[in-house]
Amino acid sequence: MLDQLVESKVDTQVNRWRTGLLLGTLILVFTSFVSGLGYSLFNSDLFVGGEGLELSMLVAPVPLPEEAPPPEPEVERTEQKIDVDTRTELIARMDMTPPKAPDKVSNVAAKVPPIPKDRAFTLGKDNYTSDRSSGDAGTGFVDPSLAGGNDAPDSVPQNAAAPPPPPPPPPPAVPKRISKGVVNGSAVSLPKPAYPAAARAVNAKGSVNVAIVISKDGSVISASAVSGHPLLRSAAVSAARRARFRPTLLSGQPVEVSGVIVYNFQ
């Protein structure tokens, strides 16, 4: 059985030759391909933009004439006539304070309508009230030339009542007390003070001023010495409290009076 076996040996030289032949063939084919490709590229005519680039002169566009603006439509202007109320006499409304008291009070309705409210008005020869709605004209006088004349007929019934007379002014306030200074001359009864023995012993003399407050009926309600010898003040205050005066009237009402009584001790 062993004599039928075939021994296989590797021929190294033959393999090298085959390998070299295959490698050389591949190199030859690759070189031929690259050479053909390069030849075809360098021998072809490559143009950009057909006939090539050409520099031309730039020309500015021709300016177009400006179109004239369309004419503004004409607006028909009409003069507006200001319609204002007219009064021959200024009569205050019921919600207004009359500028002055009427000469006489009457219950007969006035022939002139009152001043319009929230409307422009002016003095004229007729009593005319417009039928327009009140705007921002306000109340007050306007120029008669803007009213366009005062020839409109009177369209308001004469049923306005005369305003009531204003109340009389309140009487002026009367002060509760006034000052008169020295009041010796206005005394009805002015008792003389007694000369104190202690003051006589030291020969105390001179004037003593006593500040007093006279009530509305003329009696003295308070007294205090403000100057003079200390030994003489007590006697002067005691005499001042017994003094009596006439009531002082101011606007027909009695008031209190503050003043000074002067006593001279000799």
Summarize this, please?
By secondary structure, the chain is α/β, with parallel strands linked by helices. The protein has three helices and ten strands. It starts with 11 loop residues before the first helix and ends with a strand.
How would you sum up this structure, described in words?
18% of the residues lie in helices and 20% in strands. The protein is α/β, with parallel strands linked by helices. Among the domains are: 79-166, no CATH class; 177-265, TolA/TonB C-terminal domain (2-Layer Sandwich), CATH 3.30.2420. The strands form 3 sheets. Strands 4, 6, 7, 9 and 10 form a 5-stranded mixed beta sheet that branches. The N and C termini lie far apart (195 Å). Mean pLDDT is 76; it is low at 133-157.
Structural class: alpha/beta
CATH architecture of the domain at 177-265: 2-Layer Sandwich
Helix and strand string, N-terminal first? HEEEEEHEEHEEE
CATH topology of the domain at 177-265: TolA/TonB C-terminal domain
How far do the termini sit from each other? 195 Å
How many helices in DSSP terms?
A: 3
Q: What's the helical proportion of residues?
A: 10-25%
Radius of gyration (Å): 66 Å
Entry keywords:
single chain, 266 residues, five-stranded mixed sheet, three-stranded parallel sheet, elongated
Please specify the SSE layout and strand pairing.
Blueprint: H1 12-42, E1 85-87, E2 120-123, E3 140-141, E4 177-182, E5 187-189, H2 197-201, E6 206-214, E7 220-227, H3 230-241, E8 244-245, E9 248-250, E10 253-265
Parallel strand pairs: 1-2, 2-3, 4-10
Antiparallel strand pairs: 5-8, 6-7, 6-10, 9-10
